């Protein structure tokens, strides 16, 4: 059953559908990337505070965004399993565009906070996009396909921050208007082009709130061998990754005295390195070392990259860590490939919803962990004068993930879809 569906899509729809999802994810992430160098500074301007105060409020904003992801993502995942991927993706993209307009016009910190709440709810299309990819690719090709989706994030977070830095120097609100235009253009494009990937006969028969609530969605992770262990690695990986949007703009400005354009250019270099890894290296590497090997390689270089970022005494040495850190891009595709093999077609949305819910939890905890640690370091330099200490915490989290991966990152006993859905 599974092979038949993949063959049909491969004949005429699979490649165009993958291209659309790639373009959709890229445009969405460009819109989010535009805000990276701008949002902390807009928060700082509206709060009329110091860098430490801005770090505190950025942490609050980020945690709220994560809370909305935690609550909404499993609902979106279940809805996509029940009603199809297309309506969920298009609704999320449209809501994202409207929300960017709302934040562009926000007159106070409170209004901006409300916009951030809405943004967290409408950004749930990424988990459904991953389910879409799982729908239209054979299990043995998913790691490569997930790598391409990861490359869209790399492109978006490469182009977006650079443009955001330039536009932000003109007006801190201008990037939000551009984000709205990008998201709404993307929605219009998708409305006319995006095909449905999950036919009615492969959908769940009813919408189950017990599985759609965040706690219920996580029960899926206990229902398949090693899935909970892989999800634990995903939790640690996403928690560590939260250090990037939480403190890096403030960190690079404070430690290396970089302006917005310089920060944007450093993120450009990071993004280009990640794109090279995701588009050129992941596919051949997975064929050679497997999804387990890709996961272990990604975690190893993530630890090393974070360590360089944390300990680099100069901006030049910091930049030397970029190619090392880029190899962390192996982590996500390897992990996603292993996880998607363990569930059937009608559970892919629920799986991605559960993954996004985990990401939401890390987005609640991570910003508080990293921003408060960073703010404490700035306010108490005599106690622990180590500005990169929060980044070392991130490195430690990835090291723990590596240890867990040694035990649970194994291919399923049956190649392809789980046995229960192959009959």
From TrEMBL:
Residues annotated as domain Major facilitator superfamily (MFS) profile: 17-413
Domain of life the protein comes from: Bacteria
Bilayer topology annotation: Multi-pass membrane protein
Alphabetically ordered keywords of this record: Membrane, Transmembrane, Transmembrane helix, Transport
Cross-referenced Pfam families: MFS_1
Intracellular or extracellular location(s): Membrane
Protein family (similarity comment): Belongs to the major facilitator superfamily. TCR/Tet family.
Protein name: DHA1 family tetracycline resistance protein-like MFS transporter
Organism name: Caulobacter ginsengisoli
């Amino acid at each position: 059953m599974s092979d038949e569906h993949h063959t049909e899509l491969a004949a005429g729809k699979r490649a165009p559908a993958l291209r659309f999802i790639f373009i959709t994810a890229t445009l969405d992430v460009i819109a989010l990337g535009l805000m990276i160098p701008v949002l902390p500074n807009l928060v700082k301007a509206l709060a009329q505070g110091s860098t430490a105060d801005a770090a505190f409020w950025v942490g609050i904003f980020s945690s709220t965004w994560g809370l909305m992801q935690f609550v909404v993502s499993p609902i979106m995942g279940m809805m996509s399993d029940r009603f199809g991927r297309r309506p969920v993706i298009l609704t999320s993209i449209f809501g994202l565009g409207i929300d960017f307009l709302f934040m562009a016009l926000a007159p106070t910190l409170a209004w901006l906070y409300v916009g951030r709440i809405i943004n967290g709810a409408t950004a749930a299309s990424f988990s459904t996009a991953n389910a879409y990819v799982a729908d239209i690719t054979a299990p043995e090709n998913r790691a490569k396909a997930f790598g391409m989706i990861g490359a869209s994030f790399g492109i978006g977070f490469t182009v977006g921050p650079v443009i955001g830095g330039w536009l932000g120097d003109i007006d801190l609100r201008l990037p939000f208007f551009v984000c709205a235009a990008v998201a709404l253009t993307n929605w219009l494009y998708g409305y006319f082009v995006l095909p449905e990937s999950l036919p009615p006969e492969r959908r769940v028969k009813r919408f189950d709130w017990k599985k759609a609530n965040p706690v219920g969605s996580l029960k899926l992770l206990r229902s398949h061998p090693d899935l909970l262990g892989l999800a634990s690695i995903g939790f640690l990986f996403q928690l560590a990754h939260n250090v990037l949007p939480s403190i890096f703009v403030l960190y690079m400005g404070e430690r290396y005295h970089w302006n917005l354009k310089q920060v944007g250019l450093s993120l450009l270099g990071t993004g280009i390195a990640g794109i090279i890894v995701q588009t050129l290296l992941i596919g051949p590497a997975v064929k050679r070392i497997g999804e387990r090997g890709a996961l272990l390689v990604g975690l190893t270089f993530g630890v090393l990259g974070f360590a360089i970022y944390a300990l680099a005494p100069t901006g030049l040495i910091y930049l030397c860590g970029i190619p090392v850190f880029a190899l962390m891009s192996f982590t996500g595709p390897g992990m996603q490939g292993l996880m998607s093999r363990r569930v059937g077609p009608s559970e892919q949305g629920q799986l991605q919803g559960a993954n996004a819910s985990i990401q939401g939890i890390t987005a609640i905890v991570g910003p508080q962990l990293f921003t408060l640690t960073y703010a404490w370091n700035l306010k108490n330099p005599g106690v622990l004068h180590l500005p990169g200490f929060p980044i070392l915490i991130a490195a430690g989290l990835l090291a723990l993930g590596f240890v867990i991966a040694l035990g649970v990152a194994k291919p399923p006993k049956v190649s392809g879809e789980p046995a229960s859905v192959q009959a």
